[in-house]
Amino acid sequence: MQTASTTTVLRVMNERAVFAEVFRLGQASRPELASVTGLSKPTVAVALANLEDAGLLRQVGRRAGPAGRSALLYEVRPEAGHVLAVDIGREFVRTALTDLVGEVVARREEPSRGSRDEDLVAQLTRLADDLADAAGISRGDITLAVFGTPGVHDEADGSLHLAPNLPGWERRNSVARLGGITGATYLVENDASLAAIGEASYGLGRGVPHFVYVLIGTGTGMGVVIDGKLYRGFRGAAGEIGYLPIGDGDPLLDEPGTHRRGMFESVASAPAVVSSGQRLGVLDIVTAKNVLDAARAGDEAAVRTLDREVDYLSRALAGVTAVLDPELVVLGGGFGAHAGDLLTGPLLERLGRLVALDPPRIEVSTLGAEAVLLGAVAVGLTAAHDLVLDRAAPAGIAGLSKS
Q1: Where does 54-202 have alpha helices with state H?
Q2: Are residues 235 and 293 in the same domain?
Q3: Which of 42, 263, 327, 348 is the most exposed place for a label (fewest CB within 10 A)?
Q4: How confident is the model over 158-176, as a mean pLDDT?
Q5: Which family is annotated (predicted)?
Q6: Which range marks the domain in which residue 173 is found?
Q7: What is the DSSP letter of 339?
Q8: Are residues 168 and 223 in the same domain?
Q9: Domain contains 183
Q10: How many angstroms separate the CA atoms of 24 and 292, rounded?
Q11: Is there a single domain that holds both residue 285 and residue 264?
């Protein structure tokens, strides 16, 4: 009995290893897979046959080899699973549905209706239906959903903390309502953390083991990558830089809601830039983009406004640099991405005076508004692969350590 059990476990481990390499390579033959996994060709052949029978792999032709030989090529069946990625922003909701190889098959974006939690759930349910219809599947066919939100998901009581722009979600078990949107397994992750994963997977963070993603938009946040892995902290609140203390003296610190939103967020976010610009005399200002446009046109009040933003950001990044010593700082979020050309040079110059060692590289995200969504896709694909492999495994083997 023990021998049979061990044999089954080894079989599943081999299938996971083969599946992972087929996904990584895109298309692969049995000889290639034997080479990269270290498994024998007969073992690889059995794994391929089992994965094909389970509907997870398919044959896609042949590749010519030496002496006229050709080898069958295999690839992951895209339709074997689907991932719903959702970026619940403070102003917009961005959604995408991907297949099991990560190709986006449908996407939607619209203003957020998160003023009430029930309205947001209804909106997300409708969007999930729209995406599924566009992909030719039902909402129940979605393998996994990943939701990126501001704040911190408390898994112990199912609530969302430090997210004042999402009223109602701080209640116990409120986050569980997201699970009913698709009926599938779901994950909830901080938006800045997902953006950091997006950068690590598809952007400037690829191959960089130590970096931070600083999100500056309607709110502020930071995703931290250490040794190539996302760092969440003890309660999952690592990177909540919106709550960094700021020195006394700025009138913005006395505005209502400052301590609820966080002191740093109250002076360094996009709304804070608007408020600061209005106080300093920038004309015709409605949005942070107005301040940026005026600064690029040489408006002195707008230039002073951005100088104050640089001052706040540089002090925050000096603390981050002293504690984490990142190689790279990626600026993102709606304001961070659009203001990058006005921020990076002054930030580096200011940081050079504030930190003892050379400051980290500071670059503007190349992913723009897609960073959070792409991070959700990256997290979702990994988890979805595990789920479909678990479902294909013999009874009692699901949950085995993944490849």
Answers
A1: 117-135, 179-182, 191-202
A2: yes
A3: 42
A4: 82
A5: Belongs to the ROK (NagC/XylR) family.
A6: 80-195+371-391
A7: T
A8: no
A9: yes
A10: 41
A11: yes
